[in-house]
Amino acid sequence: MSTDYQKARVALGVRLRELRFSRPGGRLTGTQLAQLLGWPHSKIYKLENGKQTATPEDLRAWADATQQPRAFDELYARLQGFESQIRSWRRQLSSGHRPVQENWNTEISRTRVIHTWQESVVEGMLQTAEYAQHIFTRYAELQNSPRDIDEAVRARMRRQELLYQPGRKFRIIMWEAALHARVCPPSVLSAQLDRLTGAIGLDTLELGIVPFGAPLKIPAANGFYVLDDRLAVTEDWHAELWLEDKDSITTYLKVWNLLRESAVYGTEAQNVINRARRSLCSNEAR
To answer: I want to staple 240 with a disulfide (CB 3.0 to 4.6 A). Which of 87, 115, 131, 230 is the partner?
Structure first.
């Protein structure tokens, strides 16, 4: 978790404690507040000490229980301030994957140049519907989120229409590992590899593959995106990190360019994809 995010969460906890102490009807102990709210006492401790991120519902309940309901707007503004950068999957997926995909569609649609690095799965802009369905299913199981898989797939497929709109450039690099990852049945992966081969040559797409044996100037770490020069987005298991400051965007573009030096394109990229296909067929024949 980023230092700035944690500092903001601790600061919010301090403010919550102040509200508990300054309750017009008399100061409450943590135990008393927990009883009023029907929460375990540990939750009071975690929120006040920046060990847990409050939900908007938590903040509303806290403001009401401390007899200071007008404080909710301030508390919620604080929460939005640091949640705008750290977007937890638990919150984002509370209504399913489709809203997340539609929000991402909006961001991509207003972007002219997209730099992408993917180290473990095929980039969403190039996924087949069947491959995407398996990806969404895996993450829905992990996050225990609503199963709106078909709607999410349709939203992702709509985004791919942007590949055929002139004036955009999708500069995508993937590690060869993404071509071998068995996150779906072999038949689905085979069709996905065919899709990648067919996409090479689109005038809006620059697709590079970093082969396993390529020397790396920087370790292949988490996937990320840079949208024009305004936003960098990277993912982890618990959240997405959205960064709008110039220094962060510059860092991610520098990482992307270092990875690009290890990538192959055109016929050489097709050869790497074909090698993955042959490996897949060989393993299935055993």
So the answer is: 87
